[in-house]
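Q: Joint fold for the lines below.
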Amino acid sequence: MAFPVYNNRPVMTQILEKIKAYHKIIVMRHFRPDGDAIGSTKGLVSILKATYPDKEIYLQNDDFAAYLAFMGEEDAPLPDEAYADALGIVIDTGTVNRMSNKRFSLCREVIKIDHHIDDKPYGDISWVEEERSSACEMIVAFYEAFKNELVMTKEAATYLYTGMVTDSGRFRFAVTPETLRLAALLLEEEIDTETLFAQLYMKDFHILLTNGELMRRIQRTPNGVAWLYISKADREALGLTVEEAANCVGLMESIKGSLIWLAFIEYDDGSIRGRLRSRFVAVQPLGVAHHGGGHANASGAICDSEEEVRQLIDEADARLGEYKATHEGWL
Ligand code: AMP
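A: Joint structure:
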């Protein structure tokens, strides 16, 4: 297996020069944040504040995730005028329509740092590495490249490690020797991993019991695509928030022969979010065909109706059937 070779020194140098040139920096991420979106932005902010105590550095986003509340708050909103002389750095956000902070374009210049497939590029400077296991890994690589100038903090290391752990599925997906080398740099800051893992993975007892119920509802297509649909009424009956319901995608990840698994969650406004996951075979094209996208094996989709959900399941079934017919060695 060939690991990626990154020729990123020029773009990282350009980014560092911009950071040095601006007095005001506004850091942003995608909406409905996950551990990587929050970890990468908070991690970079912490490094920059420690390195440049005289600069104004803000974290500006319009939504947050209750399950990641332990990672702390973000800054109160700045007025629109405050953006005009600022450098915007947007991390972990593949496209403009995934942006949490829609005012990002008011910044004088925008830098994109991301690891999603670069379908719709944006930004004055763009550093995208699709093979990276997380955006946090890129921020650590950036730190490592300039570690004589930048200051790492224990707080930043904890944020960045959180994103590396969560986006790589605890170091299972897209992990390279470089991933682990960079993670080791963070561990040297003596992160409290026991507390971190408890915050990330402990569940309330009622969620565990509800998961049992959800597992019984998993369906499988003829070629083995596993799927769960949770309507608004289901959520209410089970006493689940949308975030809790969305986590059901993880319940299907270890079914032999189900190389694609899909969770659909109906939102209060009637729109249906699809969470698409796979091993061996890519699901990203399915996401792109349904108002979404993401990574080869972890993508999102938005369906307008239950018919569209059914169509997506059928497409996934055909894809998996074709894959199984032409490949060996999958599990
Ligand atoms: P999720 O199922 O929300 O965890 O998303 C899996 C991956 O796909 C993440 O990297 C998301 O950033 C990406 N993703 C999710 N929804 C979309 C979407 N509608 N458009 C583009 N990318 C998405």
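Q: Anything notable?
A: The pocket of adenosine monophosphate is lined by residues 30, 34, 94, 98, 116, 275, 292-295, 298-300, 302 (CB under 6 Å). The radius of gyration is 20 Å.
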